[in-house]
Write a structure and sequence with these properties.
9-stranded mixed β-sheet; Transcription Regulator spoIIAA; disordered N terminus; 20% strand; Double Stranded RNA Binding Domain
């Protein structure tokens, strides 16, 4: 398939379905960029383009790609055309069908472009529908492959017993440490290398502690329980053991953690994990950590910008076990540059041999803010599907069950990220953030507070993205905390 370096024109006539149209096109051309128009430009000439039109009750689609062109039409009733969600979905279905014909690609999740496919399954289960009926509905509407539908069902089955027991009056706490020793080539998170950010760390830690104290006061004032805690990043262990202790001591002093069901600390990269740091993390109550290799292939680690070896990760894992951590997660990424299916399988098999309580398999995502994005076209044809399929079979057969699943834009082969865990080792925090059923209070740079109101309404409050903004505009940021107080009061007032 030919993908031009220039932006592909997408022309929307009689509609403004930009977001969903782009998401549909990216199922087939993930690394492309687009120019949107709402009428055909004067003297229009392009080797490749997409035209999506609504003309009365008729939907029209014309797609030209790789020197070939396909035109499709569909007629809706007046009621259907006036229902935005139906008209949008059916117009995108035409684009989907045209691109399938032109590319020969059959996306495994079909037309489904959302982040949380499992929510569609759990919603139908909660309506009392059976598995066969649900499969028929989702296959007809989205053309999802049988294997992905089965994965979504298994994930839903493992989530529902945990979701049924959620304490909706409680909240979770997320704490951001947005620093890394180096920036990996695939990374799109707001994280900053230690070389450029080291001078900011003392002020950042001070402000973060101040924010935690303020959130702690709000929690106490509203008599709110903390259900789970998650230290994420970045790489939280990129800061010193001393700073880790300051932050974790601050959490202990400002929140009642005696009844916290899960205390996560993302230890992350092996080149930042030390015995001293792990001992501090254990001392202050963390019950679950992540030791994340991404791959155990040393050559691939060098390509993505990691400063450690696969053996370093194994050693970090063993140190964590000796210190007493009995709930450890390990992350792998399928589809990293230069990674072969055999290399990925070898990494996964070695991780399974280490016997962590949970293993998360991510699919490489080409985000615009990651350095890999510019070379994204070279990753099309990456044998990632073989890696992902192998991980599903190997992990389930070794007692690791899928318990949370999400998708991202620009993921190679439009695949998914899946958390697998042994029975009883599922992460509550990961389930809650994916299902959006619990309020999560965010502290720190780029952290997001997600307020889930009793009526189901969700509002988000975003902290400043960059450490210097977080430090210099701290007082302005704190003005947003009033809304948190009001939300927690409403949650507290809910009927038992």
């Amino acid at each position: 398939m030919n993908i031009n370096n220039d932006k592909m024109p997408i022309i929307l006539i009689g509609n403004t379905f930009k977001y969903e149209t782009e998401a549909t096109v990216k199922l087939f051309i993930g690394a492309a960029r687009f120019n949107f128009y709402y009428e055909i430009p004067e003297n229009f000439s392009a080797e490749e383009y997409i035209i999506a039109e609504i003309d009365g009750c008729v939907l029209k689609c014309r797609v030209k790609l790789g020197g070939k062109e396909v035109s499709l039409e569909n007629r809706l009733s007046e009621d259907e055309i006036n229902e935005r969600s139906i008209a949008e979905h059916e117009l995108c279905r035409l684009i989907f069908s045209a691109l399938k014909q032109l590319t020969g690609i059959n996306p495994p999740w079909g037309l489904l472009t959302g982040i949380r496919p499992v929510k569609k399954v759990t919603a139908l289960i909660q309506q009392g529908l059976g598995k066969a009926e649900i499969k028929e509905i989702l296959t007809k509407k989205y053309e999802i492959s049988p294997s992905k539908l089965e994965l979504a069902f298994q994930t839903a089955d493992n989530q529902l017993p945990i979701l049924d027991k959620i304490n909706k009056k409680a909240v979770s706490l997320y704490i951001s440490i947005p620093f890394c020793p180096t920036r990996c080539s695939y990374c799109s998170f707001v994280s900053h290398s230690m070389d450029s950010a080291v001078k900011l760390i003392p002020d950042y830690i001070k402000n973060l502690c101040d924010e935690l104290k303020i959130i702690g006061n709000i929690v106490k004032e509203t008599e709110t329980e903390i259900d789970t805690i998650y230290f994420g990043g970045g790489t939280p262990t990129s800061i010193s053991a001393e700073y880790i202790e300051i932050l974790m001591k601050c959490v202990k002093e400002n929140f009642d953690i005696d009844n916290v069901r899960e205390y996560n600390f993302e230890a992350g990269r092996a080149d930042t994990i030390t015995k001293e740091k792990l001992e501090v993390i254990k001392k202050y109550g963390a019950t679950r950590i992540s030791v994340n290799p991404q791959t155990l292939n040393d050559d691939v680690l060098k390509v993505i910008g990691r400063l450690h070896t696969g053996e370093d990760t194994v050693n970090a894992f063993r140190i964590a076990r000796k210190i007493g951590f009995d709930n450890i997660n390990m992350d792998l990424i399928a589809g990293l540059p230069t990674e072969s299916p055999e290399s990925f399988k070898n990494s996964l098999d070695k991780v399974i041999e280490l016997d962590p309580e949970s293993i998360t398999v991510h699919t490489l995502t080409l985000k615009r803010s990651a350095s890999l994005y510019e070379s994204g076209k070279s990753h099309i044809g990456n044998p990632v599907a073989e890696m992902v399929d192998y991980s599903v079979e190997r992990l389930i057969s070794n007692g690791y069950n899928p318990y949370y699943l999400y998708r991202q834009k620009n993921t190679v082969d439009n695949l998914e990220n899946v958390g697998y865990a042994k029975k009883g080792a599922e992460s509550y925090y990961n389930i809650y953030i994916m299902d959006e059923t619990q309020t999560i209070l965010g502290a720190g740079c780029a952290a997001s507070t997600k307020l889930v109101y009793p009526d189901g309404k969700i509002e988000r409050i975003h902290n400043y993205k960059f450490p210097y903004e977080y430090i210099n505009r701290f007082e302005q940021m704190l003005e947003k905390k009033k809304e948190v107080t009001e939300c927690l009061k409403k949650i507290k007032a809910m009927n038992p």
